[in-house]
Amino acid sequence: MYKRINLFIAVLFVLPAFQVIGQDWVVPAENSAIENPQEYTLKNVKLGKDLYMVNCKSCHGDPGKNNPLPLVPVPPDVVSDQMQSNSVGDLYYKMSIGKGAMPQFETTISEDNRWRIVNFIMNYNSNRKQLLEDKPPVKAQLLASINEDDGTVNVFAEYEDKGGDYSKLVDVPVIFSLKKTFGNLELGECITNENGRSDFIIPGSLIGNEEGFVTIVVSLGEDYEAKDVILENAKICMSKEVPKLIRQGVIWSTNDNLPMWLLLSYIGMVGGAWLAIGYVVFQIIKIRKYSKE
Amino acid sequence: MNKIESPEESRKLLDKIFKDLTRSIVKKDELTRFWFFILLMFIGVGLWGWIIQVDRGLGVTGMRDYVSWGIYIANFVFFVAVSLIGFLLSSAMHLLKIDWVKPVSRVAEQIAIAAVGLAGIIIVMDMGRPDRLLNVFLHGRFASPIVWDLTVVTTYLTISVLLFYIPLIPDLALLRDRLGSQVPKWQLKVYSILSLGWKGNPKQFKTVYHAMRVLMILIIPVGLSIHTVTSWLFASTLRAGWDSTIFGPYFVAGAFVAGTAAVIIVMYVYRVRHGLKDYFEDKHFNQMGKLLVFVSLLYLYFNVNEFLVPGYKMKLAEGIHLSNLFAGDYAPMFWFAQIFGLFIPIILLLFKFFRKPLPITIISAFVLVSAWFKRYIIVIPTEEHPFLPIQNVPENFHHYAPTSIEIMIMLFSFFAAIFIISVLSKLFPVITIWEYAEEKGIDKKYLSETPKN
Q1: pTM, 2 dp
Q2: Looking at domain B7-171+200-381+399-445, what is its CATH homologous superfamily?
Q3: Tell me: the pLDDT tens digits for B296-331?
Q4: For residue A279, what is the nearest residue in chain B, using CA coordinates?
Q5: Which residue from A84, A272, B136, B447 puts its CA 20 to 30 A from A135's CA?
Q6: Are residues B214 and A283, on separate chains, in Cβ contact within 8 Å?
Q7: DSSP A76
Q8: What is the mean pLDDT of the segment spanning A72-79?
Q9: Domain limits of chain B?
Q10: Is residue A163 part of a domain?
């Protein structure tokens, strides 16, 4: 009985998938012929990669790794022939409109960005020069020091070349971020000069902890395998104003915050009562004295 | 009162009054001994429980992180409440020149001393480290209601003791002069020291009256403060069920109810046990019954405000708290306290029959028990709903139930309070002889005469 129901459910779900497979994904000729308005440059490919990582990787997997989500039909790998046989216009059209399990991105990703993703996909096209290469990260070293007087961080970067020697790293972005409780806050980046050096000016408006200290993390991009430099307790920014946790006048606050009126009324009332008690005790003494008369 | 002219008559009447009112002092019988034995035994058991608690820590109680005020504090509030009757009967009504209250006021004063004394002791018993009690005084914060409470409890205790003692001075002299061999030597010695060599001259009487008047006026603000400040321990927080602006008068009104009931019970016991039918007359019970109705109606009024107004709005936290009281876990206790402690007594006591000594004493017992449960309901349910998420805590953090150690210590407090009252009534007359004699028209000069035996 259960088997039958299971089968029924399986058929119910698989059937539409077969229907989708059955039809080829045809792109109208005029759409197919559109050229990419975004230039095929390293910058655009890189931007496209970032977008791909966020929007598409979860289903299509890493380029060339053949690790897609097992959907029906399987989302093709970016480097696969199935993907690369598409024209630029086809890719744009297909990702805009979607089909079956492939979502429609027309409304969620801007036109420019969709074209940038196309550029990223075309990065793996055999007819084009590959601009963005997936090479293993290069071993590198990073040195950084902080100049508290003018609020700059000076860095020097070098990498290990094939011979195993270290030489300066030129024209490479170095990323500066602030260490926070829950992760790092990126401040910005700068490109190393021909000497492998670079200076980064910490924004003056930065707010540190109560004493004005911050911890700066200097790192190289993901192309390099280098230890981050952590500059701890740098005093280069304004100190944070911490509100007093115990507000003045709150009834359970400390004696230091005791409002004067409260202390005076307490002393006044208690003092008054005990003065009167003292007076009564004095009367008792008087009664005793009178007994001797 | 009609003045008694003949000295013979005066002397005879004074002798009779003295004999009646000192009967409790000179009586030595099995029942008294048995009574003190029972009291001391329970006190001993309670103290044993306390020793266990000091030794093993407060973990032996049912109190945990969320409910950190258990029946000890409920008990404390109860005792503070009961003690307040001293202020009402022996001061406020005296100053209002309500005559019938005079014999009753001594009883009220005894109860006040016993209750406020135990209120202080129970606080120490609630401490995990009672050896650090001094720190409350050394490092207390003046902004904390707990420090205010401590101050006002000690002040009230002092005033209550003085108010008990000063009217007693002429009586102590009487006891010193007249009891002779009827009591042990040490007891006579105590009387003679405490009576301050009283001669009974007009200057002394004037001073006694003056001191009494000062105390009676002083005890009004202090008495009101003691229970108002106790209510602030709760009302100065933001907790549902405690965050109330009428907590001060609500507590004071409730205190009058509990205290009046306690006085009626003790009066009845004295009347029966010491044969004081002519002193605690039916008329006194009748009047106390009317007083109980009056203060109960007042308390009912505050109850309506305290529960109906938030119950009408049912704000989130308040709503959870109230439904817990009205229909939840605490409903039986809540409705018991309201029905047997308030509604039914008010209705019954409207009839003269129920203001007769025995019926009113039974009703008072119900009122007193309900008063205790009412304090439990004020203290504990609120704490089971803190404004903190209760998650990933042991099951016994969620609910509070007193352990046997706590019940032992609670019994200790009851029996200790009864013990104090018993001792006071065993040592001193339960009605001031000289005041009573004076009221009966006996001139003061007969008081200082030593009778020929």
Answers
A1: 0.66
A2: Formate dehydrogenase/DMSO reductase domain (1.20.1630.10)
A3: 999 999 999 999 999 998 888 889 899 989 998 899
A4: B211
A5: A84
A6: yes
A7: P
A8: 91
A9: 7-171+200-381+399-445
A10: yes
